[in-house]
Write a structure and sequence with these properties.
Blueprint: E1 2-3, E2 10-14, E3 17-21, H1 32-35, E4 39-42, E5 45-49, H2 52-63, H3 68-82, E6 92-98, E7 104-109, H4 131-135, H5 146-157, H6 163-175, E8 177-178, H7 181-194, H8 198-204, E9 217-218, H9 221-233, H10 236-239, H11 242-253, H12 260-264, E10 269-271, E11 274-278, E12 281-285, H13 292-303, H14 308-314, H15 316-337, H16 353-360, E13 391-398, E14 403-409, E15 419-420, E16 425-426, E17 467-470, E18 476-483, H17 487-500, H18 506-511, E19 515-516, E20 524-527, H19 532-541, E21 545-548, E22 553-560, E23 563-568, E24 575-578
Parallel strand pairs: 20-21
Antiparallel strand pairs: 1-9, 2-3, 4-23, 5-13, 5-24, 6-7, 6-14, 7-10, 8-9, 11-12, 12-17, 13-14, 15-16, 17-18, 18-22, 19-20, 22-23
Helix pairs in contact: 2-3, 3-5, 3-6, 6-9, 13-15, 13-16, 13-17, 14-15, 15-19
Amino acid sequence: MIHRRNFLAGATWAGSAFCLAGRGCGEDVRDMYASARKVASGARGCVATSHPLATRAAMERLQQGGNAIDAAVAASLMLSVVDGHNSGIGGGGLALLRLADGQVLALDGRETAPRRSLPDHYRGSDGKPDSQLSQHGPLAVAVPGLLALLEQISRQHGVQGWQDSLLSAAQVAESGYLISDYFANVLKTSAPALRRFPASAGVLLDPGGQPWRAGDVLRQPDLARSLRKIADEGGEWFYRGEFADRLQAYMIAHNGWMRADDLAEYRVLHRAPIRSGYRGRQVVGFPPPSSGGIHIAQMLGMLEPLDVAAAFGQSEAAGLHLLLEVMKRALADRAYWLGDADFTKVPTGLLDVDYLRQRAADIDPERATVVTSHGQPPRADQDVLGRGGHTTHLTVADAQGNAVALTQTVNTSFGSKIILPGTGIVLNNQMDDFSLAAGVRNAFGLLGSKANEIVAGKRPLSSMSPTIVLDQHDRLLFTGGAAGGPRIITAVLQALVRTIDLGNSVDQALGSARVHHQWSPDQAWVEQAMPASVVSQLQQFGHEIQRTDTLAVAQAIQFEQSQMRAASDPRVPSAADAW
């Protein structure tokens, strides 16, 4: 339900709830997005998320005695309400936790292929792979994992429990929140697909089938009810109760293959983090089914012997040229080698120092080179890893030394475009992250191989890249991540290079114009904010340039002695806060 902007007078937090009122609220919600801080420093706690209300929910938990895990759970649940086009409890997530005792945990809440799903389900009447089937509608939906992930980290590592956070998110869903210009544009773009699904259109479009506008207040009573049910019954309501029954009934009625037993069988997995070194620091990333941890480590390994700071000192274009060259080599390896390590042999040799030197050996500092194929890491069949947009990233840290880098997603905007009737929950379209067939690109233009083919129970390859950087004494230096499909990986690389090699503050690093290369097609994407002189120089290096408004959205925290500095990406209505 939507109320037009002339009914809206103000908004504040009342206790843990976002309230609408005619007077006495003390804050005009029209200023909420414009006034949100992008940078904040403090010694007791720091938060950066993609939405001011999620940041505020996290800060409330910290200020009421919660730790970084409690705050991250609160932010994540709030994002399910106010950022549902990017992520939510109908999707999945990857959490990298650094606990106060120094442990680093990689918890995998990635979605899984339903047990009855087969590659043949994604072929059209002509027998050819049809990516529309993996992007829109019931066949696109993989088994959600985010809620199980949040419940597990809250119960095992939080100190407050998650009920208050669920109820706060439910209150915002019921009372409503202000639609930003950014979200209004997402609605406008998504409207043609949303019209195909009555429950989705009933929430996100007006009675005439048109997208709601900036300045309207979005209310989601069904989602509020679902969140309250979870507060009362826990994840059982979702995975073995009413939600599972509703989802099965919908899938049977609409020719989908997911069933209640898929939800009942879902498990969060503990994985061994990817650890690598760079300039005397420890870089900790997420292992497969994330490709981000491996490929960030690969790119940093290729850059290690190079004087990156000197290249940027020569010119911005010369430095970016080196980054583009390592990007294309790592992403070529991604296309061939990467998949869920529980189903696919992912070679540990991808991180072999000699292999990375060999991959980087033909980088020409003066000219762009053509990368024809993936590399051949040593012992590729013997030494393998085992278990150990659209997306959003949030990061939280506290004074006790806990830090969370959590990336969560429903894949493309509003996922499958289905809001499950009666629940208000957006269902993901994560099946599109599998490789449907050789030569078939997904929604982000990525190619895949047999390593990422659809298998029942398998987790699709992800670009999500939650990352933590430690010094040699295991002290926190950086935590962050990004949203934006494969551009996540390259955005995190650039944040690391700018903070480590160039000595930028975290907000300077996130605010800098970005580049991206994913090997195929052989093009360098460059943000419109990049100065024309730099773009011209990149073209002189031999790069074919494609301009775009935004390459990923990142959030990060930087640590220096007892102070923490949080930065949220200026490209969207995000927010950072600290105390």
